[in-house]
Amino acid sequence: MDVRSIGYAIIDSSNPEQWLEYGTNILGLMVAPSMPDDGQVYLKMDERPFRFAIQKAETDRLAVCGFELADDRDFEAAKTELSAANIAFVEGSEAEAAARCVRGLLKLQDPSGNQIELYWGAHLDYAPFVSPTGVSGFQTGFNGNMGFGHAVLPAGKLKETHHFYRDVLGFGDTDYMHFKFSEDPADPGQGLHFMHVNNPRHHSLALYEDANNPVGCVHLMVEALTVDDVGYCLDRVQGANIPVVSTLGRHTNDRMLSFYMATPTGFAMEFGTDGLQ
Question: Which backbone phi and psi does 238 adopt, to 5 degrees?
Answer without folding.
Answer: -65, -35
